[in-house]
Amino acid sequence: MPDAEPSRPRLRADARRSIDTLLTAAAEVFAESGVDAPVRQITARAGVGAGTLYRHFPQRSDLIAAVFRHEVDACADTAPALAADHAPVEALRLWLLRFTHFIATKRGLSAALHSGDPAYDSLPSYFQLRLVPALSGLLAAAAKSGEIRTDTDPNDLLRAVANLTLPAQDDDGHTGRMVGLMLDGLRYGGAIRR
């Protein structure tokens, strides 16, 4: 069975910060302008030169894949903090809302990620490797508390919640209401051990 968290290459702290800054800037620019935004827009926001970007990400597909992984990691890494700071069902609710934000902001990457470029081949398994364990832990804690049903498949829930974000604009709170409705469904029979 693979490790729950893939290992990252060892980098100096300043190099890691530089890459993280580039990935954050690229994610913001991609969300605003799409994945075809000019490199200078990304480097200007990150405060680095084009050489720094190309040294770490020689192809645009390398950058897009790295942004996706970075965002998956950020989403997965919120689960333990939420579990430590909130009651189990509240932690689950907050993480599901965080996940909907992740999905909604990645819509612009969809065309690139489904382009057939081999740079993206490992991304679906990376998504599963990082997000399924994060959600599984939250589900297990909420089920153990007796507040939700015990037979929830994390893959089914990830897919269902991702589908809630289809209306890209959440002006009227649609996604939050749908997450609440879904949690009510998980609570149905929560005390019943199956």
Automatic annotation (TrEMBL):
Ranges annotated as DNA-binding: 38-57
PROSITE patterns: HTH_TETR_2
Residue span(s) of domain HTH tetR-type: 16-75
Keywords tagged on the record: DNA-binding, Transcription, Transcription regulation
Stretch forming the signal peptide: none
GO MF, one example: transcription cis-regulatory region binding
Superkingdom of origin: Bacteria
Protein name: TetR/AcrR family transcriptional regulator
Organism the protein comes from: Streptomyces bauhiniae
